[in-house]
Amino acid sequence: MAALPVVVVLGATGTGKSRLALQLGRRLGGEILSADSMQVYKGMDIITNKVSAQEQALCQHHMISFLDPLVSNHTVVDFRNKAEPLIKDIFSRNKFPIVVGGTNYYIEALLWKVLVDTKKKISPAPRLTVDRKEELEKLDGQELYHRLSQVDPEMAAKLHPHDKRKVSRSLQVFEETGVPHSMFLKQQQQEEGGGPLGGPLKYPNSCILWLFADQSVLDKRLDQRVDAMLAAGLLEELRDFHRCYNQQKVAENCQDYQHGIFQSIGFKEFHEYLVTEGKCSPETSSVLLEKGIQALKQVTKKYARKQNKWVRNRFLQRPGHNVPPVYGLEVSDLSRWEENALKPALEIVESLLQGKKPPVDPMTMEPDINENKRSHHMCELCNRIIIGDREWAAHTKSKSHLKKRRKLESELCAAGSQETDGDSDGPKDMTEDKR
């Protein structure tokens, strides 16, 4: 009997991932595991787009609303360590997990051996742990990068000096293990089944269902979803959450929108509105509210593009053989959901459950084997460091870079012209001297 599959439902926000997962779970006996870094926290149900209690009752859900909102040091390692035993338990009951993403690195941590375990220090405060990475992120970015360059130059060369999160993580790995982060990653890649971007695939029978839609259609759908959130009570949810968890932090000037649930899309966009409500004129409050709504719509659409780019780069174009098959499901026209999404998804998963080859072929996209995603480039013209061949190529074609290059060429041309003028004056002066 074939091993039960891990089914991963991916797609940009607003494509219907939760809907499809629920339908698959109910019809085929699966259980749903959320891989969303914000849905692990209690509260903020509307803004994080959690499935309702009624929907959760229809099919067993895991990894939703189990953390206190004030916990800020929940990491991807913590997520993996909690999710893997759940997957094992689901398999033991002859069911299969449906992982719904979600957060990119959470999903990668479940599918591949790509993480390095580090120890957490116990804080003097009772029942609290200290995340060294979070401590490091509070330090000066240049100092952090200099430290990493000293202890792990190979890793430093792959990271942008301004990427404090990744630089801090690599420093944390070295401090808590005594081994350079780059060495751990190299060891994982060299394991049997490993590849250029990480260690072996942990669930060989896994598959990806990628929901995608025309971008203009999705943009309109996301704007409508924000409007629906407002109608469902988004402002009341934000006010309550701000009053319970954020108001005191703001008053003490220790608010941090970079960690925990406070970094959730939709909360920080309404910061000005929340902290000034009742303290300014109704007209000003109305302007700030509209500003928050438009910011939420804009950042949601931007995030959707980022999610699709990640699927293409990390799955469709991922080099190596240890990549699950990706089956594309086009969901631009929701009136054809049954035909375009549900029916083919059911056929694919049913085939895997029966140990058979799915009736449709997975999507393919040839990886660029010559592309180095971690190459280090310094643009002297723009005084910027660019990481990655593709990013470097995009930078050299960007408007800002080309504008500076044209300006420099113009200045050099003007300088050359002045030198030429000076040379022509020389012979003329000599002629006059002869006279």
Automatic annotation (TrEMBL):
Residues 396-407 have a biased composition (Basic residues). This is tRNA dimethylallyltransferase. It catalyses: adenosine(37) in tRNA + dimethylallyl diphosphate = N(6)-dimethylallyladenosine(37) in tRNA + diphosphate. It is an enzyme of class 2 (transferase). Residues 425-435 have a biased composition (Basic and acidic residues). GO terms for cellular component: mitochondrion. Keywords: ATP-binding, Cytoplasm, Metal-binding, Mitochondrion, Nucleotide-binding, Phosphoprotein, Transferase, Transit peptide, tRNA processing, Zinc, Zinc-finger. It is found in: Cytoplasm; Mitochondrion. Residues 396-435 are annotated as: Disordered. It comes from the Eukaryota. GO terms for biological process: tRNA modification. HAMAP family: IPP_trans. Catalyzes the transfer of a dimethylallyl group onto the adenine at position 37 of both cytosolic and mitochondrial tRNAs, leading to the formation of N6-(dimethylallyl)adenosine (i6A37). Mediates modification of a limited subset of tRNAs: tRNA(Ser)(AGA), tRNA(Ser)(CGA), tRNA(Ser)(UGA), as well as partial modification of the selenocysteine tRNA(Ser)(UCA). TRIT1 is therefore required for selenoprotein expression. Belongs to the IPP transferase family. GO terms for molecular function: ATP binding; tRNA dimethylallyltransferase activity; zinc ion binding. Residues 379-401 form the C2H2-type domain. Its EC number is 2.5.1.75. Pfam families: IPPT, zf-C2H2_jaz.
